[in-house]
Structures are given as C-alpha cells and as structure tokens.
Amino acid sequence: MIRIGAHMPIGGGFKRVPKETYEIGGNAFQIFPHNPRQWKANLPKEEDIKLFKEGIKKYKIDPEAMLCHSGYLINIASPNIETWNKSLELLILEMKICSTLGIKYLNIHPGSHLKSGVENGINQILKALNTAMEKEKNTFILLENVTKKGGNIGSTLEELKLIIDKAKFPDRLGITIDTCHAFDAGYDITNKEKLNEFLNKIDKYFSLEKLKFIHLNDSKNDLGSNKDRHENIGKGKIGSEGLKVFISHPLIQKIPWVLETPGDNDVHKKDIQEVLKILEVK
Q1: Is 109 labelled as part of a ligand binding site?
Q2: What does each C-alpha distance from 193 to 36, 187, 190, 197, 214 come to in angstroms?
Q3: What's the distance, Cα to Cα, between the start and end of the chain in Å?
Q4: Residue 228 counted as an annotated binding residue
Q5: I need a surface site. Which of 115, 177, 247, 257 has the fewest CB within 10 A?
Q6: Is the confidence at residue 281, as pLDDT, over 80?
Q7: What pTM was computed for the model?
C-alpha cells in the first residue's frame, strides 16, 4: 500500500490532524510540533494528546508514517553560541513533544555554517545531536537533504554521511529525501539510471533502511539550480513524467511520502490525487 499525505496544519490543536489527513485522501502526515517561526514551544495538553491518539487509531494511520518537522529558527550548525544554545534547547523540547504525541520521527535541516566552514558546522551539529539524543531517548532524528545555498550543510549525501558516521547515536539517526531539494542540488531523480545510482549511493552510505521518509515536491527551478522553491505536483521542472520515474521505483514505494507543496488542505487533496493519477492507482 502506498503511504501518502501532506504537511498538515495544527492551529487549534493536534487533535485535528488524523481526521483531516483522512479527508484529503492521506494515510501519512507531517506536522510542526509548534509554531515554526517562534522560539517558544509548549508540551501539548492532555486532552489534545488523547484525542490525537484516538484519531490515529480511528483512521488507521501507521505510526511509521507520522513525522514532525523541526521549526524554522533552529540552526544547530551555527557558530553563534547564543543561537546554538537556543537551537539545542528547542530541539530537545521538540523531541519531548514528539514523544508525548507518540510520534517516533523528527525531521530536521542540518543547518547553516554561516561562513564558518562545513567542518565547523558539522562539529556543531554533532555536539547538538549528541547532547539532545542523550537527553531524549525516544525520538528518531531524520536529517533532510537540502540545497546548497546560504552555507547549508546536507546538500550532498556525503555531508549527511559525515554527520551520521561521527554521531554518538547513529542507530537513532536516519534521512529524509526531499525531491525538490535533491533535484535542485543536481541529483537527476527523473532519469531511471541516475535514480538507481542515487539509491545505490544511499544504500552504500547509510543502507536503505535509514531512508525513512520522502518529501514529495515538484520544483519551480531547473536541475542543479540550488534554489529550493517547491511547486505543486506535475506543475514544475520535475514534472509528471519525472515524478513518475521516481515514485514508480519499488524501493521508493516502500517509504511514506509527504507533500510540502504550496497551498492548503484542499490543494494538497488535489496534489495527492495527481500523484495517484501519475501512478495510475485507481
């Protein structure tokens, strides 16, 4: 069975997420654990937790297809000690929120070294991950591939490998592959041969077991553009044919897909329908 969904709103509480996931035709989802544009976060209230978990059971959502996405302000690669400390503190709280909700996976962007260099940035990331994962032992952190702009770390599989190889708790680290980010970073996932090379490299560096989620997005920009601007399914430079190559691969079909395309739930419902149409799923 294909597991597919979208990034879902949480305004008014987490309890809304399972039902709305079902209503858009999904059986997987991603959420923010708090307002992503604020440093402040709170643990959810007991009633919200209860209703959320009841909804998960009611709508039969696989726990392996539930994902939290870290807030936008966190930068655990930062050379600025104040920013790094605030990022670490919020990351730990996000892990607690995930654990409270019964969500196993937290997706994070590795961060930007802000001109301090990749090596220094990776060292900062490792310090943060090691500290956070020592304190919160229930959460599995997924490093998302990004585009190479603004000092971002993780635009290549090699950089993600460096982090996981040196981490204190590699067994609780995995990766998320974002199709827009991969395409914009120069990985041609629209070509069968190149896609196989990409997946073989993932298997060689991490094992495919480490690939836990796909962010399924089209791209507004060309291959290798390093822009990172998501587009709705079939309307971008990856396109329907390119996405068909990617999502038709049997290994990709084993992994949950989450859409982060522009628009609200109604738009995401149409995007999910478009994905299934591309796959020729009735």
Answers
A1: yes
A2: 37, 11, 9, 6, 19
A3: 12
A4: yes
A5: 115
A6: no
A7: 0.97
Are 103 and 67 within 8 A, CB to CB? yes
Q: Which two tokens stand for residue 71?
A: 């807030």
Sign of CA dihedral 48, 51, 53, 56: negative
Residue 122: count of CB within 10 angstroms of its CB: 20
C-alpha distances (whole Å) from 60 to each of 46, 48, 144 are 21, 18, 26
Please provide the CATH number assigned to the domain covering 4-279. 3.20.20.150
Residue 268 is labelled as binding a ligand: no
Which are the contacts of 61, defined by CB distance < 8 A and separation ≥ 6? Answer: 18, 21, 27, 28, 29
215 annotated binding-site participant: yes
Residue 267: exposure state from Cβ atoms within 10 A (0-12, 13-18, ≥19): middle
Give the pLDDT of residue 149: 85
Question: Which residues form the catalytic set?
Answer: 37, 69, 72, 109, 144, 178, 181, 215, 228, 230, 260
- pLDDT tens track for 3-42: 999 999 999 999 999 999 999 999 999 999 999 999 999 9
Per DSSP bridges, beta strands 105-108 and 140-144 are: parallel
Query: How far is residue 146's CA from residue 177's CA, in Å, rounded to a whole number?
Result: 9
112: β partners: 152
Q: Is residue 64 a known part of a binding site?
A: no
264 vs 138: CA distance, rounded Å: 31
